[in-house]
Amino acid sequence: MATVYISFSALILLFPLALLLLLYFLVRPRPARVPIKNRHVFITGGSSGIGLALAHLCAQHGADVSLLARSAAKLEEAKQSIKLATGRDVRIFSADVRDYDAVRTAVEDAGPIDVLVCNQGVFVPQELADQDLEEIKFMIDVNLTGTFHLIRAALPAMKKSRAERGPGSIAIMSSQAGQVGIYGYAAYSASKFGLKGLAEALQHEVIADNIHISLIFPPDTETPGFAEENKRRPQLTSIIAASSGAMKAEEVAKKSLDGIQSGTFIVPCNFEGYLLSIATAGLSPQRSYLMAFVEVITAGLVRLAALCFQWNWYRSIEKWHTKK
Ligand SMILES: NC(=O)c1ccc[n+]([C@@H]2O[C@H](COP(=O)([O-])OP(=O)(O)OC[C@H]3O[C@@H](n4cnc5c(N)ncnc54)[C@H](OP(=O)(O)O)[C@@H]3O)[C@@H](O)[C@H]2O)c1
Fold first, then answer.
1. Residue 176 CA: which ligand 1 atom is closest?
2. Has residue 7 been placed in a domain?
3. pLDDT, tens digit, for every residue of 83-122?
């Protein structure tokens, strides 16, 4: 009986070790580092909010930063604020990501890019039945098609210059609404869910070129865009989103930069984001055998937590309709 007990305990101890060892050899792509210092980081939507905070951080880390957005005045203001804070010069490009020719010209003028951050985004929440078709198209065009435009314009030169310039990165700013659909976000979520398919397929296509994709999933973040969005939020969206507090743009920028530098594919920004990334890992690439271990071990429990969240959200919706 004692022998059986000892072998059972040994098995319990050995299982995690064996799993860790298996995952160490299994995870793909292999871990990578993407340095930032003295490298060209091109950030879209870099004149405001998360993009601006990331631009400051990259400049602090010694990167050569380029910014792209529509408003030349806001870009100039961002440029001056970074110069004042870090002493570094920033190049600015005024273009609308919906205009492919303008994007291509800006990318060509900027010169070889090492890290492309597709951060531009617009978010106008509303129930789909009432939302203007133009507004729906606007979100898809800026968030999804605009990101295609940027990557398509920058990729050929990025691929060509890797051998001489070292590892490259394409970071794509999604949202927690790109991991789970929430009331009022049908169009926004669709535009952000689309980015996941783009990122997963693209990582297959560029891994041999030493280019690493990071897909970043911020929660609500205090930015000018968020302040505008709040004015239009349906009441139920606010009730459902209330469970998670808002982060500061600087905190999200720090998580984003850490994710980019470590070549992490899925980049969560807070604890809830970690749970979401485990719950939605699916067939996503995973470079870290430790994170893969956590995903495998906690999958069932995290699914249970996800079902509790859904229960809570549907209960809120039912209550709200009953009250109405
Ligand atoms: N804040 C949040 O709660 C939150 C949460 C999750 C994810 N995100 C995502 O994070 C990203 C940044 O959001 P944010 O809150 O920092 O937004 P923000 O403060 O509104 O800044 C948006 C930036 O994108 C630029 N932009 C917008 N439309 C553009 C276009 N058509 N072409 C080129 N540039 C354009 C804006 O400049 P111009 O207007 O001058 O063009 C601005 O620089 C977005 O992708 C957003 O979806 C935000």
1. 6
2. no
3. 999 999 999 999 999 999 999 999 999 999 999 999 999 9
